[in-house]
């Protein structure tokens, strides 16, 4: 039996601790309950929001005028060998993601260890193509089981057909309709993820390390391998140093993770940026660049933000801010995280995000895009 509550403050369900009341909040603990609630909301043509761990949401202070379905399904199943002798791990959408990673590392299953410490639920990982420290879930997802709101049935989508890209997927891009609902937009796409299946290597050591900072932390070079437990411990330590592991005692962890996506530019756009940087910062300043698809370059959003004048902890004094927008600031540990140290509002957070976005655009001509889902407002 689903639990239904009305006018529930959503701030208690997000890592930002922001968000007004939901008209109706439903906790669904089985796939059948999720499907039934999604169908009912669609039949009523009302706004609907799927809620997992609330780690990638910025919900308006006014709340949500429809049904919020909290996915609370659990279960991790390890099956026989898949292709190439891999272990097949099927995870319910409502499982805590870091718990999934920890259990796989403990059992000597490689492929998720660099994704340790990421908050949220397993069902969100294919939507965003969650990645960190040189790994993405796209590398290990073999199947996604989801409810298709257009066809009205459960479908199974092979990993190769998920359309994975940098922080995106076919699930993120596929909408149920082109129209907005009650002016609030469609926050739930065509597919509602129910289970995710991973193919993991039975091996006590990681794959070749791809991220320089992580390799250095382990005292290794890029391309070397390390024991899974050591990789997990190193990743958690790095994330803690950046305020990216949830800690009730650390206000810098009260965020939605990285607020801006690292921009991906074509070679022409990157050349233009290099010219702007040389003119603004000096001819010897080099723009950090990272591998991307052929013909493209990925650059650091954090680097752009800092060079545009927005350092860690900005603004240092709330007196510099609009008194009507109190509280929100950049993390003192990580430039990409916008935090609610206490007393902030969603409006203040979005105000700060716009200030940073506009400052980077004015300084470098690069438009930053938000990574979290914005519910009830736009950047």
Rg calc: 21 Å
| Average predicted confidence as pLDDT | 92
Low-confidence regions:
178-185
Determine the strand fraction and express it as a percent band: 25-35%
Largest sheet: 6 strands, antiparallel
Number of strands: 20
Distance between the ends = 38 Å
In short:
The chain is α+β, with helices and mostly antiparallel strands and 379 residues long. The chain has helices at residues 31-44, 97-106, 125-128, 170-173, 212-217, 228-241, 267-281, 301-307, 346-364, and strands at residues 3-9, 21-28, 48-51, 57-59, 64-71, 76-81, 87-92, 109-110, 131-132, 135-136, 141-148, 153-158, 191-202, 255-258, 264-266, 289-290, 296-299, 329-330, 337-339, 373-375.
Question: Could you describe the 3D structure shown?
Answer:
The protein has 379 residues and is an alpha+beta fold. The chain contains nine helices and 20 strands. 25% of the residues lie in helices and 25% in strands. Strands 6, 7, 8, 11, 12 and 13 form a six-stranded antiparallel β-sheet that branches. A four-stranded mixed β-sheet has the order 1-2-5-3, covered by helices on one side. Strands 14-19-18 form a three-stranded antiparallel β-sheet, with helices on one face. The model is unreliable at 178-185 (pLDDT under 50).
Spell out the blueprint of helices and strands.
Blueprint: E1 3-9, E2 21-28, H1 31-44, E3 48-51, E4 57-59, E5 64-71, E6 76-81, E7 87-92, H2 97-106, E8 109-110, H3 125-128, E9 131-132, E10 135-136, E11 141-148, E12 153-158, H4 170-173, E13 191-202, H5 212-217, H6 228-241, E14 255-258, E15 264-266, H7 267-281, E16 289-290, E17 296-299, H8 301-307, E18 329-330, E19 337-339, H9 346-364, E20 373-375
Parallel strand pairs: 2-5, 3-5, 4-20
Antiparallel strand pairs: 1-2, 6-7, 7-13, 8-13, 9-10, 11-12, 11-13, 14-19, 15-17, 16-17, 18-19
